[in-house]
Automatic annotation (TrEMBL):
WD repeats lie at residues 134-166, 631-663. Residues 27-37 have a biased composition (Low complexity). This is F-box domain-containing protein. It comes from Aedes albopictus. The keyword Membrane does not apply. Residues 49-95 form the F-box domain. It comes from the Eukaryota. The keyword Phosphoprotein does not apply. It holds the Pfam family WD40. Residues 1-40, 310-349, 397-421 are annotated as: Disordered. Keywords: WD repeat.
Amino acid sequence: MSDAPSSSVEFRREGGSTNDPPEGCRSRSGSSSSSGSLVGEAEEDYCENSPWVFIPEPMFTKIFLYLEPRDMLNAGQTCKRWNKLSRDDYIWRKYFQREFNVDTNIGLKPGAESWRSEFKRLTDNVPMVMTDVLTNHSHQVLHVSFSHNGKMFATCSKDGFVIVWNSAYPSTIRDSYDMRKLSWKYTQFSQFNQSDTLLLVSGVHFGSPHSTSGEIAVFTVQNGFRLRCRVTNRPYDIFGTWFSDQHLLSGDLHWLAHLVSSSILWLNKANQEVDSEHTPIRNQLYKFYNRNASSIRAIMVANCPWLGDEKKDEEGAEGPSTSDAAGQKPTTEDEEDDRRIGNPLSHYQMNQDQAMDNMYRAGRDIDLDFPYVPLENNDYASPIHYLDEYRREYEDSYYESSDDCLDDDDDQEDDDMSETEDLDNLCPKYLIFSTGSKTYTPHQIGFKRISSVNFPRRVDPGPSLKERIALRDRQRELEVIMREMSQEEIRLQYILQNETPPMEANWANYEAVADRFDKVDKLIDLHGHIIGMGLSPDHRYLYVNSRPWPKNYVIRNPLEPPPIAQEIDIHVIDLMTLKKVGTMLRAHKAYTPNTECFFIFLDVCDNYVASGAEDMHAYLWDRYYGVCLTKYQHDDVVNSVAFNPRDNEMLVTTSDDYEIKIWRSLSQAKKLGIQPVGKAIEFRKLKSRTTTCH
């Protein structure tokens, strides 16, 4: 049976025509009544003897199931009985499962009116038609993000610009800034604060081809697009994120020994114009231990009000120590970064050990045993496979929202709370990041619970300049004396002064230095290269893009990560239990090897999940039913996608083809009177040409 185009399915009013003939029959003349008695007797005789009168409803149901939805809706206009049958939810459930390839064991989505209404939603209310193509960027477009009120979105590109757009049709440029004026190579990430008054922009500095240096800039969005502050950020793929409405997180990296480093996360004020030099503008939040050339990357903050209900002695009970957490950093590469597709990971670099770098370069020439075979079906897209626990929790959370800490009130735009109030009475949060322990590439998700934050009101001025100079001179004199003494004489001097001789830290032994670092509460190993993460709107679920490693692969050298698959898996993690509740295996495609792998951003709204891919398409799945519905065409890698948070029927995709495409639903396009300039590919239309979706 061929599939009918969804756009041709018209949902008509349910009451039928006021001139419908009697239930179960239609007169030969086509009218439901006659002024003459002879005609009335003829109609009555026809109705009583019509074979349609005696067909039982189960038989009608079977007949209707052979029709296409469009044809059944047309048949429903025949008479009242057929109209009633055409609205039977059993029939629409069968249609729904058949058209969208939904597992028959999955029930109706909580809160949905009927299977018929769900069929209509996936037909008319999925972003499907292309309404805008924006070509103002002159290089690869790496990221897109929406404001919380849905009125603006921002794009970042390798041309060095950040552009803020008005999201109303037709989209127009609201503001832009060339970050190359600040010695940036390109912009890579942006995020609006909760009140949509400030925009965080993250980018990469100019420097050597393997430099990991980056910076975060904050701009005002209301009353002019003005630069408000700049914060260093290293490595650049930490990205940065808003911690609260007036505070943001940045990172720094310090090498301690060969393959061992520490990642420091800083809490920064968004407004760094202070009245006194003793007023602090940033404060160290956490310091994490990294092994095997790893580091913290892609930080984000989730508001988790349910954490406030747990007992303090249960905090971090199931989480391993930071000794299991090791971030990741790719090694040096000889290719020119500007020609690469997408936004690559920052690169591992330790100049003090050139021998190890040379060994790694030699190792790159070794053929890795992994099947890089293109998929046979170019229309491949697999469904989400959820645990039963997910749908039970979905049903419970539908009626009792967990987004108590997420304030989307439009009036908040004009509410400029003080920086002190901004950190008072914080909602419990999770700091989330990608990291690793076996190799430099990110393969683990780390979680750190944040209950409260103490930001100092005043910086301790410390010794005066005169005192610091005197202390420095004494230290220099002491160093001269100690250079002339043997180790035994130095040890005896410390004993005579009842002091412990200083010992150099053994950074390679985590247990020996664990007290100097913060512990990670929970680590989830995905056994693959993590290339993107996104939170559900209520911050309950974390969706992760990952390119899997070969099964049972043994890593012998942290600088030689495993080969990665050409397909991207999507994992779903419940932040209430910190357990995986769903997986989309082989969900969409990527082709670059592990040493050139870059970020593919995904986004989650109330109804759908979308992600970019390297096969020149973005993909969209229904969150509850798990089925892939649509793919969106570009001419190169799709780096990022974003839903309008106030309108799930609007999606923006960005690509290495320098274009930004805006997609809206059929319903929205019709309502706005938009003439579409293109249309996405529906997967249910492909079933007539392929036996399965994969």
